UniProtKB/TrEMBL annotation:
Its EC number is 2.6.1.39, 2.6.1.4, 2.6.1.7, 2.6.1.73. The lineage of its organism: Eukaryota, Metazoa, Spiralia, Lophotrochozoa, Mollusca. It comes from Acanthosepion pharaonis (Pharaoh cuttlefish). The keyword Glycoprotein does not apply. This is Kynurenine/alpha-aminoadipate aminotransferase, mitochondrial. Keywords: Aminotransferase, Pyridoxal phosphate, Transferase. GO terms for cellular component: mitochondrial matrix. Pathway: Amino-acid degradation; L-lysine degradation via saccharopine pathway; glutaryl-CoA from L-lysine: step 4/6. Transaminase with broad substrate specificity. Has transaminase activity towards aminoadipate, kynurenine, methionine and glutamate. Shows activity also towards tryptophan, aspartate and hydroxykynurenine. Accepts a variety of oxo-acids as amino-group acceptors, with a preference for 2-oxoglutarate, 2-oxocaproic acid, phenylpyruvate and alpha-oxo-gamma-methiol butyric acid. Can also use glyoxylate as amino-group acceptor (in vitro). The keyword Chloroplast does not apply. GO terms for biological process: alpha-amino acid metabolic process. It holds the Pfam family Aminotran_1_2. GO terms for molecular function: 2-aminoadipate transaminase activity; glycine:2-oxoglutarate aminotransferase activity; kynurenine-glyoxylate transaminase activity; kynurenine-oxoglutarate transaminase activity; methionine-glyoxylate transaminase activity; pyridoxal phosphate binding.
Amino acid sequence: MNYARFLNKVSLARRPSPTRVLTNILLQSPPTMISMATGMPNANFFPVLEGSFKLQDGTSIKLSGTDMRRAQQYSQSQGIPELLDWLKMLQKNMHNPPLLDTPGDEQTKIIVTNGSQDGLSKLFDALITEQDHILMESPCYSGTMSMVKPLGPRILDVKTDGNGLIPGHLKEILSRWSPEDAKNPCSNIPKVLYTVPTGGNPTGCGLTFERKKEIYNIACKYNLLIIEDDPYYYIQYTKDYVPSFLSIDVEGRVVRFDSFSKLLSSGMRCGFVTGPAAILDRIVLHLQTSVLHISGLTQFVILKIIELWGLEGFKAHVLKVAEFYRQQRDVTIDAAEKSLKGIAEWNDPTGGMFLWLKLIGVKDSYKLIMEKAQEKDVLFVPGNAFMSTDNPCPYVRAAFSQCSSEDIYVAFERLAALVREHRGY
């Protein structure tokens, strides 16, 4: 594939940092190598010698003196090699990317970022030029909106329903162009499609595999890059995971984002990106000029945890996480049935941690939620936070990740009272 088509001038102008290149060389060199090239600080002055962490199951992980010296020192921008190896094993087991071991620009690679959102931000910075058309599911994760809007593209909203992004509407939008337009560098045909395919944020809905295959075929026809933002992949309310876009990517047009935030720790800020080498190399070049690499301590702690668990232990852990959120979802639906039936409409979430509510008889939820709800000691997110326009929006996002069952019932009772008051009865 010609990946230059997708990249903007700023990204194409990036070049490897000489000091980062030398750092990589040094870290892979034998002990006999004498380096007076890199600006690494002297490790003898690092204050922490070693460390141990107790896990919830009573086991512990330990960072030896050697581990801790590495954790506190500069490392490779793409991630420490042992963690990358483990993640490659994980992706092969869970998704079996068709291009994982295929050499060339299409080869599937993996890099580590400061949470998946950091990787997403750097990817959008590399892809979008002002006035570009970009295809985004609607409603769309508000954090992505915050990344994309300042870059000045023309956002094309692709409708969603209870089964995620609607392929028919995607076709309808693209029908104003010909697939041949994708070969013309001067054409304004969209190049990028963004979606949260599992437990969508804010909708809680997920794409079926049939839809994924149809969307992928459309992407091949119109030469689109699919951004698969999938932090809730392991929080599906079924033991049979819906296969990912990555698992069917035979052309190197899927950039997949995973995160440990919903599974291990949001504060450690660790995500990983899987996709074609030509695209991931651009993200690495951006990392070299921004944060250099994510926290070495974060990478080593996560590595030690997943090494201790092993692949099967990791799978067992994420199943426990998913089961907790499934129970939270069930309580949330029951509470909605008791308090909001006839007042709101919704689709039952298939994954993630959100319920997307349409308030009946409310033209715009913003003031109701941002002003009235706070006065009643309850917080939700108004729907317009997830929209590309400032048009009135009757939707509300409810997050059920942290609330107790009792609080969920009370929150919806308070919301119902607000809606009734707003409607005048």
